[in-house]
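Morning - inosinic acid inputs below, output right after.
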Amino acid sequence: MVTRPRPVVTRPGPTVTTHLGAPFLQCYLAHPMATNVSTMIDADRIAERVRELGAEITRDYAGRNLVLVCVLKGSFVFTSDLARQIDLPLRVEFLGVRSYGEDTKSSGIVQITHDLTKPVENDHVLVVEDIVDTGLTIAHLLDLLRTRKPASVKVCALLHKPARTRIQVPIDYLGFTIEDKFVVGYGLDWAERYRNLPFIGLVESSS
Ligand code: IMP
Ligand code: MG
């Protein structure tokens, strides 16, 4: 049996399980690629958890130069909500990353498609990720960002799938721990679709 290293989650969020039959956007009902989207985490629960994370970050980063690094594309919704729950002066930078093709399996290949626009030297960098799955993407990004000589680098991830960990990464702020299912919505995509769902859902392919 292969044993995988566990990521270091200093403040684990609640573990969620899936329930079927919750609402989904009407436009996806008729989509030929999908038969069903079920709600895993509804919009209210996400908003409540984002408020809690924002309050923690506000406490922890008071008096520091905070730079949120939004990992595109998947984190664009989470970052915009989180930034508005942090009651501190901060900067937002974007890092474009592609780690998945048109499939639901990790390729392990991380391609930078857009770099930071300003240096982060001596700044306190908080990387905002949609989901830590195998951990390969965030491990690569942490290595990259450390070469820019920030005062600190930490990770805030909305979701974590511990069952799929391939490399140990620190997750300093975590929204939710989820089971080993491919999820969409709230910025996360499946072949570039579903990013605009206001909740985290499970999509079942019709093929
Ligand atoms: P990792 O490198 O395997 O940790 O994967 C990181 C990236 O893969 C995430 O930032 C997502 O963009 C994407 N990803 C991983 N799991 C999912 C999922 O369940 N749904 C949508 N995207 C995912
Ligand atoms: Mg991502």
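Note: Residues 74, 99-100, 106, 129-137, 182-184, 188 surround inosinic acid (ligand 1) (CB under 6 Å).

O.
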